[in-house]
Amino acid sequence: MNTQHNMEERLWEYIDGTAAPAERQVIEELLQTQSEWKEKYGELLEMNTMLHSTELDAPSLRFTKNVMEEITRIHIAPATKTYINNKIIWGISTFFITMIVAFVVYGFSQMEWNTSANSTFSDQLEKIDIAKFFNNTLINVFMMINVVLGLILFDFYLGNKRKQFRKEA
Amino acid sequence: MSAGQNDNELISKVLHGDHQAYAGLVHRYQNYVFTLTLRLVKNREEAEEVAQDVFIKAYKYLADFRGDAKFSTWLYTIVNNTCISFLRKKKLNIQSLDDERIFATADNQDAGFRADGVEQKSRHAMVAEAISQLKPDDSAIITLFYKNEQSLEEIAQILGLEVNTAKVRLHRARTRLKELMETHFAHEVKDLN
Prior knowledge:
The complex is a heterodimer.
Chain A lengths: L1 H15 L4 H13 L1 H19 L9 H9 L8 H4 L2 H24 L11 H6 L3 H4 L2 H33 L1
Helix pairs in contact in A: 1-3, 2-3
Chain B lengths: L6 H9 L6 H20 L2 H17 L10 H19 L11 H15 L7 H11 L2 H12 L4 H8 L3 H22 L1 H7 L1
Helix pairs in contact in B: 2-3, 2-4, 2-7, 3-4, 4-8, 6-9, 7-9, 8-9
């Protein structure tokens, strides 16, 4: 069964023209010498011809007319690349990367690097004063920056929508 | 009207405001798109509705066609996505590759065809009937390869697969079609030989 399956697979590749030149040569030799291969090839070739000869189905005669009537009511949307503003994406990425770097730098600056020799890295990490970092003022500033950035992005979005609407009008 | 113009020329005309040029593209591809939607949706009325939706979507997003692939490949990608969305909406069960229920369905359909006196059907009709009895993804890949003249690379792009996966799927689809024809159309196959 497996050999049969393998034979069919190789023959289909040969018929489709996707077999490598060396493989084509091997198959051609097999077709000349092995009757089993020749018989299967005839069978698959027949099926290939039948598949190529099937006809396409046709929709109703009014099809093109229906589509053309529908498209008179719509406008072609601008290409995606014209309304995806790379500056916004870069702005968001820069903000988050800056925040992550700031947190890491702050965390490391809280470590006491010149302590006793038996103090491990995990001990050092535990010494980071997180409560000091997450005081109310800092969180408020962070939230405010986020809100301002959110408003700027929302303004960009509305601006693009306005432009698009004007273009369509 | 559009006979002498290639796809890119027609697209350029449409994008420059001549929306009537789109009729040329619709006319050129309507049978290909309809055949493919019919293979996936399996119902003529619904297939026509979906095919119409495909051309409307293609028109709306025509500016996104960059021309780095054939227009037909881009269009069939829309066909595939639209059909999947349609079938999901209808909550139709898209059967998995290992699902054997299709053969049970084929049994019933075969009995129906015989009762209708379809034994004398032509070779074309028999193959088309067998293809329509395959599950949607099998019949779609066969249609794309044999009727819509897409290469394995293009089929992989349309269906969002690796080229090798597309190759394996095509091989499996052909094997299933052959089994289906041997099992359910044995008489017709003999008569034709």
